[in-house]
TrEMBL record:
The gene is pstC. It comes from Kocuria coralli. Belongs to the binding-protein-dependent transport system permease family. CysTW subfamily. SUPFAM superfamilies: MetI-like (SSF161098). This is Phosphate transport system permease protein. One of its GO terms (biological process) is phosphate ion transport. Part of the binding-protein-dependent transport system for phosphate; probably responsible for the translocation of the substrate across the membrane. Pfam families: BPD_transp_1. Keywords: Cell membrane, Membrane, Phosphate transport, Transmembrane, Transmembrane helix, Transport. GO terms for cellular component: plasma membrane.
Length: 326
């Protein structure tokens, strides 16, 4: 009897320290969760406050534009007539870049993820990622010294053969420094964003989905259309919107390539400018009312970027129910 009691006491004595250690570990884990949660919340608040501070600063510094007489604003017809061509130029360059980079980026990502052998896919992926590391000023220098002269004969051909289309009306630029050239340079700059993000999403497609599609007799192309693209739809939209944000805000490459001037609807004529390039070229010497004009133009770009991001979030929220990524 005494032996049994002794055994039970020993067992209880052995359990108490283990239970105490478990409670201590649980308490430590809860404390770590609280700390991490607090840090995450703090980081989110900092980002929100930073965004709010930028918006307040731009609004405050741009407010003098309201009081500037219309004939004293650059262009002599008021601020809206000054910023309107810049907004259109910004959107034109970004749209051209997206129209070129989106299909190319998605196709390259599909090739790397589903078609190329490993010994080819990895080097191609490294080269695409390397494009993102090249400074924008290098792209601009390449665009003005190599790409622009190379495209000038092609622009002449477009003007002679497709000049009846407003976008290709002549006379074409002799230097090749046009909105089309700027869009092509931007498309190369945003290509790594679309390709890298799309590739990472494509490789995450559940293998069971792909194998089920192939087992039902689908070709590889049909499998990609039925299994891969629906799964990656929201991710592709996110990649495109992120690339659009880069294209809207790009400065040096566009400033070097474009031959600034008034608004031109033709993509092969000299002229046009973007908000970012306008600010970069004129900000160092600006003061007074001119400085307020440039900051107000920057505020317009800030608003455009916010609108683009809101639209992107709305598109993602609408289609995420039909995406395999959930």
């Amino acid at each position: 009897m005494s032996t049994n009691l002794s055994d039970q006491e020993q067992k209880q004595a052995g359990e108490k320290p283990a239970s105490a250690l478990a409670d201590a570990a649980s308490a430590g884990g809860r404390a770590g969760d609280k700390i991490f949660s607090g840090l995450s919340l703090g980081a989110g608040i900092v980002i929100f406050l930073t965004l709010a501070a930028v918006a307040i600063f731009l609004t405050w510094q741009a407010s003098p534009v309201i009081e500037i007489p219309a004939d004293e604003v650059s262009g002599g017809n008021g601020f809206l007539s000054y910023v309107y061509p810049l907004i259109l130029g910004t959107l034109m360059a970004a749209i051209i870049a997206l129209l070129i980079a989106t299909p190319v980026g998605i196709l390259v990502a599909l090739y790397i993820s589903h078609y190329a052998p490993a010994k080819v896919a990895k080097p191609v992926g490294y080269v695409i990622d390397l494009l993102a590391a090249i400074p924008s000023v290098v792209y601009g220098a390449w665009g003005i010294t190599v790409l622009s002269p190379a495209l000038a004969p092609f622009y002449n051909w477009l003007a002679n053969n497709l000049g009846f289309i407003p976008l290709f009306q002549g006379p074409a630029s002799a230097t090749g420094r046009t909105m089309m050239t700027a869009g092509i340079v931007l498309s190369i700059m945003i290509l790594p964003i679309i390709t890298s993000m799309s590739r990472e999403i494509f490789v995450q497609t559940p293998k069971l989905h792909e194998e089920a599609s192939l087992a039902l007799g689908a070709t590889r192309l049909e499998m990609i259309r039925q299994a891969v693209l629906p799964f990656a739809r929201t991710g592709i939209v996110s990649a495109i919107m992120l690339a659009l944000g880069r294209a809207l805000g790009e400065t040096m490459a566009v400033a070097l390539v474009l031959s600034t001037g008034g608004l031109q609807w033709s993509l092969i004529r000299s002229g046009n400018n973007t908000i970012a390039a306008e600010i970069a070229l004129n900000y160092p010497e600006a003061f007074g009312d001119r400085l307020a004009e440039l900051i107000a133009a920057g505020l317009m770009l800030f608003v455009i970027t916010l609108i683009v991001n809101f639209i992107a979030r709305a598109i993602i929220a609408r289609y995420k129910e039909f995406s395999g990524a959930n």
